[in-house]
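Recall from the previous chapter that SMILES is a line notation for molecules. Here it describes zinc ion.
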Amino acid sequence: MRCVVCGSEMVETRTDLPFKVGPSSIVIIKGLPVHSCTRCQEFALDDPVMEKVDKILGSVDESMELEVVHFAA
Ligand SMILES: [Zn+2]
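With both inputs in hand, we obtain:
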């Protein structure tokens, strides 16, 4: 897989990413498997991972300001 921004090689890694789910609500998903660019800050998620992220974000309480969820592979 190549980076869409700079064309460099992307490597599989795990990282923690914040997602905004409401006006003042942020969910941090830990241990998320991503493809990360070796040169710039770009990253990409696989479709099955993205679907799980959608499910996680859909199930959180949006009245919380900050929630930390561990991504279960
Ligand atoms: Zn890049």
